[in-house]
Specification:
304 residues; alpha/beta; Rossmann fold; 2 domains
């Protein structure tokens, strides 16, 4: 586990903290301590706040007018500053989310603070993520942009091709997308268990929560159809490392891709395809899957 960070924030900023800031901190390996995750019913609030805050190596203060008008927030801020009044240890990180007048406890030492009123500001996000030392091969602003584009499209029922450049940590992004979407079945095509069509369909069914072992062709396509149609809720299926299809498409045969296309067009199935090249370039031009409407999202890793 990485460094522990206590996030002090006004509940007017709760949505941004929980859905933007905390996912970034988690992706960069931080152990995030916030009230929504750590507080227990029936225990005095200030006692819990202090106990959780005392566990932190870094105190991240999300500053706004609402924060500076909140007695609990000021309590947390004063305790954080007391741990490093001169801001020389680097354990207190002020983050201005909304324009506000810095309080004397922060203004007087004049620390380097982060200004995150705009989530697309990569330089300011770097000041946050550098605290945690993890190198996941992508900027936080780019990670957030790709995550939002994929999440919003899939929640809208649209399939997505994530085209990856460089060497960003894709696994962490996929884990966050699964949390965002609530349901995402993941199949890694680099696994030896997916080399043949029958075994691939069995892996798809397992990812969907089924214990069915696909039968031999052509009955395996019926198993796939029933597995998708009978799965509860929205059916979202992710294929990792889709680039292996360059050498494996013939293993699966055209009727497999035709079956996937049918399930997508019937709105029963939403696909997420992760690849290094646009997925249509990995399949024959006449392949059924190449003909479906799919949103392309790029994930651009940092230059090395």
């Amino acid at each position: 586990m990485g460094k522990s960070v206590f996030v002090s924030y006004s509940h007017q900023q709760a949505d941004w903290v929980r859905n933007t800031l905390c996912p970034v901190l988690n992706a960069w390996g931080a152990d995030v301590l916030i009230d929504a995750l750590r507080f227990q019913a029936g225990v005095a609030m200030y006692e819990q706040m202090d106990a959780i805050q005392d566990r932190a190596e870094i105190h991240l203060l999300v500053l706004s007018p609402d924060y500076l008008a909140s007695a609990p927030c000021l309590h947390e801020m004063k305790r954080a500053v007391a741990a490093d009044p001169s801001f020389s240890k680097g354990c207190v990180l002020p983050v201005v989310r909304e324009a506000c007048t810095l309080p004397p406890e922060i203004k007087s030492p004049n620390p380097l603070y982060v200004k995150l009123v705009d989530d697309s500001n990569g330089d300011q996000w770097d000041l946050v993520t550098e605290k945690f030392g993890a190198n996941i091969g992508v900027s936080a602003a780019e990670w957030l942009r790709a995550r939002r584009a994929v999440r919003d499209a899939m929640l809208d029922g649209r399939s997505v091709n994530l085209v990856v450049q460089g060497s960003p940590d894709r696994k962490g992004l996929l884990a966050q997308l699964r949390a965002d979407l609530g349901q995402l079945a993941i199949v890694d095509l680099e696994s030896g268990a997916t080399v043949g069509r029958q075994s691939l369909i069995t892996e798809i069914l397992r990812a969907l929560g089924s214990t069915v072992v696909a039968r031999k062709s052509p009955d395996d396509l019926r198993d796939l159809h029933l597995g998708v149609m009978e799965a509860p809720g929205p059916v979202r299926l992710a294929f990792r490392h889709f680039d292996v299809l360059r050498s494996r498409a013939n293993n699966y045969k055209e009727d497999f891709f035709s079956a996937l296309k049918f399930l997508v067009e019937e709105r029963q199935l939403v696909l997420f395809i992760e690849s290094r090249a646009p997925y249509t370039t990995l399949l024959p031009a006449t392949n059924s899957l190449s003909m479906i409407q799919m949103k392309t999202v790029e994930l651009r890793g940092r230059a090395t």
